[in-house]
Amino acid sequence: MRATDLIVTITSLVEQRVPTFLWGAPGIGKSSIVKQIAQDKGVGFIDLRLALMDPTDLKGIPFYDKESHTALWAPPAFLPRHGEGILFLDELNSAPPSVQASAYQLILDRKVGEYELPSGWAIVAAGNREGDRGVTYRMPSPLANRFVHFEMEVDVEDWRLWAYKKGLDERVVSYISYRSEHLFTFDAKSDAKSFATPRSWEYVDKILKSTITKELLLDTLSGAIGREVGVSFLSFAKVMNRLPDIEN
After folding, report:
1. Distance in angstroms between the alpha carbons of the first and the last residue of the chain
2. Cα–Cα distance between 140 and 138 in angstroms, integer?
3. Got the DSSP string for the chain?
4. How many CA atoms lie within 13 A of 73 on its CB side?
5. What CA–CA distance (Å, rounded) separates 14 from 125?
6. What is the pTM of this model?
7. Which residue has the higher pLDDT, 228 or 58?
8. Which end of the chain is flanked by fewer CB atoms within 10 Å, N or C?
9. Whole-number Å distance between alpha carbons of 93 and 136
10. What is the chain's mean pLDDT, rounded?
C-alpha cells in the first residue's frame, strides 16, 4: 500500500484504537509515517523498542504495599499516563519471542500488570519482513492476530511530494525523477552494505549540504547509496549544474 493511502487508513484505525502493524523493507519510511500521523493529529508519540527490553520490563517492578500487605507492580515510567497519542512499538518482531509474548496483554487488553493504557492512546507497531536480512523472529500467531496488518510499498510520486515538502536538494529530487528505479535498490539476496532507499537519499541531501570536499564526495555518497548509483547521481548532478538558469 502507498504511503499516502497508509496515512489515511492508519489514521482512521488509530481513532478507533485498533492495533495496527506496518510491514516493509528497511529504510522506506515506516517510522516516519507513524510519527507524521501523530504530528498531524497533534497528539503524543512514544517510540518503544521492545528489542532492547527484557520480558519483565513492561510489567515494571514489584513493591510491598503496607495497607494491603500484598506485592503490587510499579509500572515503568516510559509508558503514557494520560492524554492522547500513539504508542509505537517499532521493530517489534526484532524482539525475542519471550519479549513479544510479554506484549500480548498490552496490545489486546490495553493493560499489563497494574498498568492500563489511557483511553486516548492507540498502539501501532512496525517491523521488517522476514526476508529482508534484518534481525527478526517469526511473529507468533496469537500476537499476529492482535493486529490489522499492512505492507508498505515504495512509491516514487509519494516520495517526490515528501521530498519537496522536506526541502531536499533539487538535484536529488530531479535525479529520482530521471531514474526512478534508483529510489530503492535494496536486494535481500545481495550482501551489499550500502544501497539506495528513501532514508539513504535523505542522507545524500545532508551530505550535499555538508562541508565534504569534492575529492571525498563520491566515496561518501557510495557509502550511503552504493557505488553504482553514486557514480550515476554525480554524473547527473554535474550535467545539471552546467545547465543555464532560464530565469536569468
Report:
1. 42
2. 6
3. --HHHHHHHHHHHHHTT--EEEE--TTSSHHHHHHHHHHHHT-EEEEE-GGGS-TTTTT-EEEEETTTTEEEEE--TTS--SSEEEEEEETGGGS-HHHHHHTHHHHHHSEETTEE--TEEEEEEEE--TTSSSS--PPPHHHHTTSEEEE----HHHHHHHHHHHT--HHHHHHHHH-GGGS----TT---S----HHHHHHHHHHHTS---HHHHHHHHHHHH-HHHHHHHHHHHHHHHHS--TT-
4. 15
5. 12
6. 0.86
7. 228
8. C
9. 5
10. 91
How large a percentage of the chain has pLDDT more than 90? 69
Strand pairing class (115-116; 111-112):
antiparallel
In the numeric block, which cell numbers belong to residue 222? 557510495
Single-letter residue type at 235: S
Say if CB 65 and CB 122 are below 8 A apart. no
Q: What angle do CA 186, 192, 195 make, to 5 degrees?
A: 40
Q: Tell me how far apart the alpha carbons of residues 82 and 245 are, in angstroms, rounded to a whole number.
A: 54
* CA pair distance 118, 69, nearest whole angstrom: 27
Please give the pLDDT value at position 245: 59
Grid cell for residue 240: 545539471
Please choose, from the candidates 60, 198, 33, 28, the residue with its C-alpha nearest in 3D space to the C-alpha of residue 124.
33
Length reported for the chain: 248
With a CB cutoff of 8 Å and minimum separation 6, the contacts of 35 are: 45, 47, 88
Output the DSSP codes for 110-142: SEETTEE--TEEEEEEEE--TTSSSS--PPPHH
How far apart, in Å, are the Cα atoms of 181 and each of 175, 185, 218? Answer: 10, 7, 20
Q: Output the nine-digit C-alpha cell for 85.
A: 497519542
Q: Look up cell 509508558; give the residue.
A: 79
